[in-house]
Amino acid sequence: MTEIVLKQGAEAKLYIGNYNGTICLVKERFVKNYRLPELDKTLSKQRIKAEQKSAKRCKDCGIKAPKIFHADFKERKVYMEYFDKAITVKDYIIEIQKDEEQIKLICQRIGNVVGKMHENNIIHGDLTTSNMLIDKNENDYELIMIDFGLSSYSTSNEDKGVDLYVLERALISTHSNLPQLFDEIIVHYKESYQASDETIKRFEEVRARGRKRTMIG
């Protein structure tokens, strides 16, 4: 089967592949020559394991995530479920940005899913609208969480607060014309995560430290 590359970033490339006769998405974490070989090998293995564990944890608690078919540590490849009609939430928000009701609905879905992740102590590590999908095969456009390479399992409110800060910064950067997104998401985050008060407090502390660094330069 001819390799069809969908995306290539700094850490990995994504392409359409085949696993035991099933069309799938392959994420290949290529060698980074600027790193020490052993360090590069260790980081690659850690991130592949994180991908496996967090995707399974999400699915176990009712959050949609790609099914992981196989991980090949030697080849640095993860074979996973491919959502052929899915688009990123980033692109979806750009598409619907003038539709106030649809914007509120996608914020509700994001808040509910991130809240549920934190309720189950799943830290994504790279919460951006590029790492969330909307599957247009589904009538209700269910949110799909992807790209768990930087994810972890943690009960720490600090870690959850940092996760929220990453999301806020990503929204400001990517969707600067829709400044209401984060506040709307947080409303629904609190609905899904009953013990969110301490996490929100820690998030505000992280945000304050971030702003201080920005002012100081």
TrEMBL record:
Database matches in SMART domains: S_TKc
Enzyme class: transferase
One BP term from GO: tRNA threonylcarbamoyladenosine metabolic process
Reaction it catalyzes: L-threonyl-[protein] + ATP = O-phospho-L-threonyl-[protein] + ADP + H(+); L-seryl-[protein] + ATP = O-phospho-L-seryl-[protein] + ADP + H(+)
Protein's cellular compartments: Nucleus
Record-linked PROSITE patterns: PROTEIN_KINASE_DOM, PROTEIN_KINASE_TYR
E.C. no: 2.7.11.1
GO (cellular component) term, any one: nucleus
GO molecular-function terms, A-Z: ATP binding; hydrolase activity; protein serine/threonine kinase activity
Domain Protein kinase: 1-217
This protein's UniProt keywords: ATP-binding, Hydrolase, Kinase, Nucleotide-binding, Nucleus, Phosphoprotein, Serine/threonine-protein kinase, Transferase, tRNA processing
PANTHER family attached to this UniProt entry: EKC_KEOPS COMPLEX SUBUNIT TP53RK (PTHR12209:SF0), NON-SPECIFIC SERINE/THREONINE PROTEIN KINASE (PTHR12209)
Family the UniProt entry places it in: Belongs to the protein kinase superfamily. BUD32 family.
Subunit-level organization: Component of the EKC/KEOPS complex composed of at least GON7, TP53RK, TPRKB, OSGEP and LAGE3; the whole complex dimerizes.
Function: Component of the EKC/KEOPS complex that is required for the formation of a threonylcarbamoyl group on adenosine at position 37 (t(6)A37) in tRNAs that read codons beginning with adenine. The complex is probably involved in the transfer of the threonylcarbamoyl moiety of threonylcarbamoyl-AMP (TC-AMP) to the N6 group of A37. TP53RK has ATPase activity in the context of the EKC/KEOPS complex and likely plays a supporting role to the catalytic subunit OSGEP. Atypical protein kinase that phosphorylates 'Ser-15' of p53/TP53 protein and may therefore participate in its activation.
Descriptive protein name: non-specific serine/threonine protein kinase
Organism: Polypedilum vanderplanki (Sleeping chironomid midge)
